[in-house]
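Q: How do we represent a protein-ligand complex in a form that can be generated token by token?
A: Start from the inputs.
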Amino acid sequence: MSFLSATLSRVKPSPTIAVTTKAAELKAAGRDVIGLGAGEPDFDTPQNIKDAGVAAIAAGKTKYTAPDGILELKQAICAKLKRDNALEYLPNQISVGTGGKQILYNALMATLNPGDEVVIPAPYWVSYPDMVLLAGGEPVVAPATLENNFKLTPDQLEAAITPKTKWLIFNSPSNPTGAGYDRAELKALTDVLMRHPHVWVMTDDMYEHLAYDGFEFCTPAEIEPALYDRTLTCNGVSKAYAMTGWRIGYAAGPVELIAAMRKIQSQSTSNPCSISQWAAVEALNGTQDFLPANNEIFKRRRDLVVSMLSAIDGITCPVPEGAFYVYPSIAGLIGKTTAAGTIIENDEVFATALLEEADVAVVFGAAFGLSPNFRVSYATSDEALKTACTRIQEFCAALT
Ligand SMILES: Cc1ncc(COP(=O)(O)O)c(C=O)c1O
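Then emit the structure tokens for the protein with pyridoxal-5'-phosphate bound:
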């Protein structure tokens, strides 16, 4: 019998972290690898936010805080939710954790019993199914299609719901596809949820501010106020504020659920880093002026990557509304042979061959629950993107 817990055997390590690690190893060995695997902006944290962190250290704000966050940050989050999402919350309805990841994990740990089902639209962020499994629940994957731009239809949602469903996890704009639901598309899904009062919705609004071509972000509790009492609205500062290393995420929801999440946090990590919390206060209350400027850059990169990948025979690359990912299909390349003699049987073989033969690291689609595709993160320099896409073009042109 293994010394390790049986629960652990149900989960796998994060494949996105695995790709990033492999690319880093090859780089360290002297190879000129371009990594398009990591899901973090290449921008530095804005200066005013860094200054707030430094000021917090200087002022001695370096001690334990309340387990789920300082009041000043909870107030800043309430103000943000009102300003950006027309949602009214009080500080006792807010939970702050060590990144969006811990917030989602706490919520699942706080609510799932064995056999409880969680509907996860695919393609999904890699961590959702494994977090559900770790919490003792059962992930139920609801597959969307490329034809519908990777967005779940009301019928597909309806088909995934059973009497055992506890949550729908809803992520828009999406990692890995960048797909964002507009108001009508989201209303059609919340209408389905209104017919199933036992189902709650856990939103993942991490990419809220990363939207292009006038796409307007919306979130379930805003679109259907009747869902307010069974919605946990989750968000964080990692992506939009280029604060991935600071580790601050948050959730807003019913008091009882927030209290349950606090209990878990108080017995696991205690509070998120005090210094990071003060920096996050500045992120949410301070100037938001750099957001449109960053989005201009992201949009330019998205357009560059979409046009260079779309030019490849056998690749279809939809134009996403937001985030910093594209999720092209390689359906037209399956069965072909690379210059080194590898047969592209599936997207994992494609991604491995691309790394080994063309020095470009991407993440294969099977990791996100929809194949045959791969995910490109365009949160890297224009220069690197151009070179990487040229390499992908040459790699594909050499296929026979
Ligand atoms: C969809 C999505 N949700 C949550 C997270 C986690 O964010 P954080 O770094 O704040 O834990 C990520 C990060 O990759 C993400 O892509």
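The longest helix spans residues 290-310. Residues 6-44+290-397 form a domain with the Aspartate Aminotransferase, domain 1 fold (CATH 3.90.1150.10).
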